[in-house]
Every structure is written in C-alpha cells, then in structure tokens.
Write a structure and sequence with these properties.
By secondary structure, the protein is of the alpha+beta class. It is built from 13 helices and 20 strands. The strands form five sheets. The protein has a six-stranded mixed beta sheet with strand order 3-2-1-4-6-5, with helices on both faces. A four-stranded antiparallel beta sheet has the order 7-10-9-8, with helices on one face.
Length: 484
C-alpha cells in the first residue's frame, strides 16, 4: 500500500517530464521532508523505473556545530543504505557572513543553490528536487503577505524554475502536507533529523509556523487549502497580465537600454509597472534590490517626468528621462575610459567605475565595517608581500577582467575562472566588463569586490605578518541622486 506522499510524488514526476533516462539530484538536508523525498523517489524508481538515476547531495552549512555534522552523517548513512551516490560538501557560512556580511538565510540559500547547480552540471542531471511541502508554501505566502508583496510574490513558491543553463529546480512535494511526510516516515520507519533552530522564536518564519498558522487553522480548518487556492488563482491572473505586458514591451521599440514611452502613458498602472520590470530585468540581468518604490518612481518618471529628470537605482544604475523615452545607464556609461587600469597606492583612494577603492594599513573603525546590502561596501585583509620583495612598494593595479583570468579562491584547492565566480556571486552580466579587479602589477588576480580573495594573498588577522598586511575597502558610489 503506497503512502499519499508516494502517490502525489509519482504523479508530479510524470507530469514534470521525468522519464527512465532522467538523472535527478535530491537536495538532502537530513530533515523529515528531504528524508521522505529521498526514500520515496528511490521507491518510485524501484517500482516504476523512473527516474533513471537518483543522486543525493548534502551541503553542511556549519551553522549548528555538532548538530550540523550529525545531519551530514545521517544523510551519508541513508545514501549508503539506499545504494546512492552522494555528493557532500562543507561551507562555513558563519565565516562568509563575517567576511561579507548580509543576511544569514540568504547567504545559506545562495551557497546551497550554487552547490546544487554545480553538482547538477557535473552529473548532467536534468532536475534538482527539493522537499518544499504545502506547509512551506503556506508559511511563505503568509510571510510575503505580511511584507506587502504584489501578485508575483503572492503566487508563492514556484513549482519549478531554471537552475543554470540545463537543469531545473523542481518542487514536486508542494501538494504534500507535513502530516503526509510524517506518515511516510512512520510507515517505512525512516529516521530523520530535527533542526533545533526551527524552534527558535527569533526567526519570523518560526513565529508564523508555531503561532500564526495554528490560529488561521482554528479560524478555518481548511485554511491551507484556501490560501494555496488563492495563490493558484493569483498565479493565473499574474501570468495573463504578464503576457499582455510582454507584448506591450515588445511593441514599444527602442534600442534595448532605451524604453520608448509612446503607447505606455495611457495604459493602466499595473501594465506600466510590469513593462518597467520586464525592461529592467532584461537590461540589468536581474531584479535584485529592485523594490516597489523604485518601480513607482520610474512610473512617475514615465507619466509626468520632464526631460533630464532621473531615478537612481541599485548597483550604480540610473534611469534618465530623455524627451519621449527613458534611458537606463550605469555610472560607467557616464565616465570616460571606465575600464582604464589605475594604480592603487597605499592610502590613496582610486576611483574605478562605480567603486571607490582604498588600500590602507590603518585598521581604524572606518575600515572595520562589514559588507552592507544597503550601500554595497566590501572589505578584505591581504598579505601583499607576495607582490614585491619590498612590502613598502606593494602597489597594486585596479583593472577590468581579462580573458582567461582565474585564481584559487580562499577555501578552495583549485583555480576557478573569474567569470565563473562572478556568475556564482551574482555579479550582473551588464557590469562584469567594467567591474573592478584588484591585481598584482604582474597581472595575478588578488580580489574583486563581493568575491572571495585569492588564497595566496589572504590574511586572517590585522597583526598577522606585521608590516605586510593591508586592508582593502571597496564602496560602490554614485554622484547621481533621485530627483523624482
């Protein structure tokens, strides 16, 4: 007798196009959801012959010490019992946060999906399966509702999305409830790990899970079903309006970075805002840090702005009203020779493209800041003695990337192409050719803002190798301010 989880999962795998020759990666954390997913997919393969191969992948984020190591051991033992190949790696997320700052949950998610994408590419896998359930969907919808998300956010967790050029991230358990997960584990006596952080009230998701969701279910016993149905209806409406906005955008003409306004001004605000988002996404390569307020400012620029008015956008972009069009520029577009190499001397700030870069030996409070998602600032300590026989002559060069650039990042044992690192660390494609790369005068790459430093130049503490350690600080700057 198959469990409800097995039945729902099998139907979803077939609908998603997974066949007998398909290689799938299972993201296994060790928790109940992913343990049940791993077990169920193996059972489906045994009885139905699909997918063709199942591979387990586990990333130890090293967030909970021995508990994290216990999760890894559980996945290893489970993969061995099921006869699966396992790819397991460790990434020190706390160290990444210490070096780069940012949000814990976002940092862990980014390194996890980078890991899963790489494993999928290395094994020619068509799908990466994660164990998101209907309960996860409900919690996500409530979080986004509290945040004030629009229709795109309130459609919830997407069933699938691209993961790299060839693989898809697939959430085949979105129709499965937490109760059905536990029933599957109980039926087949599958052990699983419990993440103690899921009980901590300091995380908003936990408060929603343990306080808000039970209250909603008390008010409406079928609350989960009602909320996910509403999300499905919103998704249909969202897709319909997006299709109209896409056609309108294609009809608007322009030369890519220029959006012609004829035919847009009289349209409904919902359509205008979507056209603006499509345009921004195409020109920047993503919509990171683009909020509703940014789109609303662009809409005001579109309907009432005078020529010359401008709106500043994240990551050094600015939209400028030019007669009957809006032009999207990066700061580099307004600077002569933005990619011309410059020499970086001690305590002498250098401007390169969007960034102001300083090298100093003075570890004052100003240079003890961590990366900020608000102002895009980065810092790193380096031992630049490798650059010169005389440390005091340790001038560096700031340049744009060059074909073939590669180096061994801190924490790795092999060289990685600079282009690959920029992709993994979400440097927009539109700015990569003018993004600062700090290098030795002989051309060796040392560091680039937002990327890990080269291991041969890394320094852990300010007093390590006294007299040879310098501090590099890079801050994104702009001379353009919002006037709308």
């Amino acid at each position: 007798m198959k469990t409800e989880l097995e039945k729902k999962l099998f139907e979803d795998l077939k609908r998603s196009g997974i066949g007998r020759g398909t290689v799938v990666i299972i993201a296994a954390s060790g928790g109940a959801d992913s343990s049940a997913l791993l077990d169920a997919v193996v059972r489906i393969r045994h009885f139905h012959g699909l997918p063709g191969e199942v591979i387990a992948a586990h990333l130890n984020h090293q967030l909970r010490g021995e508990e994290s190591d216990g999760d890894e051991l559980h996945v290893r033992q489970m993969a061995e019992r099921l006869g699966l190949r396992l790819f397991a790696e460790r990434v020190n997320v706390p160290e990444i946060l210490l070096e780069h700052g940012g949000n814990l949950e976002a940092a862990a998610r980014n390194v996890r999906y980078d890991f899963l994408q790489r494993i999928a590419e290395e094994n020619c896998a068509g799908f990466v399966l994660t164990a998101h359930t209907r309960d996860d969907q409900v919690e996500t919808l409530l979080m986004r509702l509290l945040r004030g998300s629009g229709a795109d956010g309130l459609r919830g967790i997407h069933h699938q999305r691209p993961l790299g050029a060839k693989a898809k991230l697939l959430r085949s358990m979105l129709a499965v409830t937490r109760a059905e997960v536990l029933d599957h584990c109980d039926t087949y006596q599958i052990g699983f790990r419990t993440d103690s952080s899921n009980l901590s009230p300091k995380f908003k998701r936990n408060r929603i899970r343990h306080q808000l969701v039970p209250l909603m279910r008390e008010l409406n016993p079928r609350f989960d079903e009602a909320l996910t149905r509403a999300a499905d209806l919103l998704a249909d409406d969202d897709d319909f309006i997006d299709a109209i906005a896409e056609d309108l955008y294609r009809q608007s003409g322009g030369d890519g970075s220029t959006l012609l306004l004829e035919g847009l001004v009289e349209r409904h605000p919902a359509l205008r805002r979507r056209v603006l988002r499509i345009w921004l996404n195409e020109q920047r390569g993503d919509l990171r840090k683009i909020s509703f307020s940014h789109v609303a400012s662009l809409d005001r620029l579109l309907i009432s702005g005078r020529s010359g008015k401008r709106v500043e956008l994240p990551f050094g972009f600015v939209a400028v009203r030019q007669s009957d069009s809006i032009k999207l520029l990066s700061f580099n577009d307004q600077t002569e020779n933005p990619s011309q190499p410059v020499i970086l001397k001690m305590d002498s700030p250098a401007r390169f493209g969007n960034f102001l870069i300083t090298m100093t030996g003075d570890f004052s409070a100003h240079f003890k800041r961590k990366e900020s998602s608000a102002d895009r600032s980065y810092q790193v300590m380096l031992n630049v003695n490798n650059n010169s026989d005389e440390p005091e002559n340790a001038d560096l060069m700031v340049r744009s990337r060059s074909p073939g650039d590669s180096y061994t990042p801190l924490g790795k044992d092999h060289k990685i192409k600079l282009k690959t690192l920029m992709i993994r660390h979400k440097i927009p494609v539109s700015v990569r050719d003018t993004y600062p790369v700090i290098a030795c005068l002989d051309g060796r790459v040392i560091w680039s803002p937002g990327l890990p430093p080269a291991s041969e130049f890394s320094a852990k503490t300010a007093d390590e190798h006294a007299g040879r350690v310098v501090h590099l600080f890079a801050q994104e700057v702009t001379e353009l301010t919002e006037e709308v």
